[in-house]
Design brief:
15 strands; mainly beta; 43% strand; 1 helix; 3-stranded antiparallel beta sheet; Cathepsin D, subunit A, domain 1; 8-stranded mixed beta sheet; globular; 4% helix
Length: 166
């Protein structure tokens, strides 16, 4: 398992850790969710075999550096989680290509696009952090995704809703 994190993390919402060991995307920060189905309840095993309660599943809207709207679906809300985790396995299951070479993690969009979504550099301690910033000025919670990439997405200007799933 590898867990991407950033030692100099300012807030829980600053970093989304790429994690090949978690089965689903998860966050302990309820402010990140644009919608949350709180009827979804379960339990997840975290590091050191400790348990965390899943208190919902929802969607996190993200705004790219180019101002494009995307979203991350099927994100579990685990209040005891101190970090946001992005599941490599879940990305692959949804059709994204994820590659690791040297000190870089590359995520490509699903076919037929296959556009570069992110190149995430490994930190000195062997982690792969994606930086995100909550933008609460938009309707609903939205996060801004900041990464070294050429992003590909459009937005529905009429509804100002994300038009591309990530």
């Amino acid at each position: 398992m590898f867990l991407a994190c950033n030692v100099a993390q300012k807030k829980q919402s600053d970093i989304c850790y790429l994690d090949s060991g978690c089965s689903k995307h998860m966050s302990g920060n309820i402010e990140m969710f644009s919608n949350l189905d709180e009827s979804v309840k379960s339990e997840v095993t975290l590091g050191a075999d400790r348990k965390g309660s899943i208190m919902g599943k929802g969607r996190v809207n993200i705004l790219t550096k180019k101002g494009e709207n995307k979203y991350i679906s099927d994100v579990y809300f685990v209040p005891s989680l101190k970090h946001n985790l992005m599941s490599i396995g879940q990305l692959i299951q949804k059709g994204y290509d994820v590659f690791f070479k040297n000190d870089m993690c590359t995520i490509l969009d699903r076919p037929p696009s296959r556009q570069l979504i992110a190149n995430v550099h490994m930190t000195n301690n062997g982690k792969f952090p994606l930086k995100i910033i909550l933008d609460l000025q938009r309707e609903g919670a939205q996060a801004q995704l900041s990464m070294n990439s050429q992003e590909n997405a459009g937005k529905d200007a009429k509804n100002n809703l994300p038009s591309k799933q990530f």
